[in-house]
Protein: Peptidase C1A papain C-terminal domain-containing protein
Organism: Neolewinella marina
Amino acid sequence: MIFRNLLTLLFLLSLGTGVRAQQPYGTAKSAEKLQGLSDLAVIDQMMYYIPGIGSSAREDLLRQNIKPYMMPIRQVPQIGMEWAYALADALEYYVNLNSNFKDNLSPDYIAMSLANAGARPNLVDGLGLLMNSGTVSAAIVPYNSNTIPNSVYSVARFGINNFGYLFRPETKARNRIFETRKALSRGNPVIVELATDAAFSNLKGSGYEPTGPITETHFLTVIGYDGERETFELRSSLGRNWGNGGYVTMTYDDFGDLAQTGYVLIPKE
């Protein structure tokens, strides 16, 4: 109980001062261009505060959920593609915020571009690709594609300015919880690498609590939290029949134990 109250107090104090200092979405606070930021102070300065979603109001600091602003749940063609779908989900959230036209972005283009360059596709290299060249609309490279058409060279690209490591495997559990809540309170989704048991891939129901040995790794997007219930809500790319329509909730304690690495995007203006 003491830990819970201390964590909440630190969180509210941090957000009470930090949020007001944030510039609106579309205006970066730093010219820092290093690929992948690790300094939490720098990430805090560069992280966007999304007007109308992020808020310094006490009620919004106790709970936040950006699910209404996300595109529909999709299903990966294979488990190894989860990271690319999580990247596309998070990026199109920012792309669509200030647009009347909602665009699906192609995770398949991200994975195939890396593979064609001779790299084994992974999330960190995918983030680098979004920084350096970007992805394209899923109308150009559809889901489950196995080729990249020549038309990609003449269409709009969607990318990011940078990204930050909110936490790593060596980060204390309470700090993983704190940094994730802080990012979400400002309206930013958080991509997480989650260690799970084997039952996770076929999960049914709204909540997840490991019941067996930790043997798998999955990539999900944290889209909400409830400070009173002390839970996070995460979005998967395992389809609508997984979890609760593609979403699942986890307690802070389980999240702190299982979330290995957390990433936040720094979108383009």
